[in-house]
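May I ask for a sample protein chain and its fold as tokens?
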Amino acid sequence: MNKTELVAAVAAQTGLTKKDTEATVNAFTEVIEKELRKKDGKVQLIGFGTFEVKARKARQGRNPQKPDEVVKIPASKAPVFKAGKAFKEAVNKK
């Protein structure tokens, strides 16, 4: 499912227009991005999951096209999502 399909599905379920639903989805993602940019930023949705940032240390890698070449990979931050228990159980229902 892509963003357009998500907006259409949410609009159909809520009765909102696609335009209003798209604005809501955009606002939701923007708020999460803004919160994760903060130091120790975290968004926890009970029953669904938690969005947070994990730090990655600098490391060495290899160029796949030139395996003898060592490449320095700088330290970075990566957004991660950890699914909540209720969400995991809902996904695993048969």
In short: Residues 1-37 form one domain. The chain has a mean pLDDT of 94. The helical segments are 3-14, 18-37, 85-92.
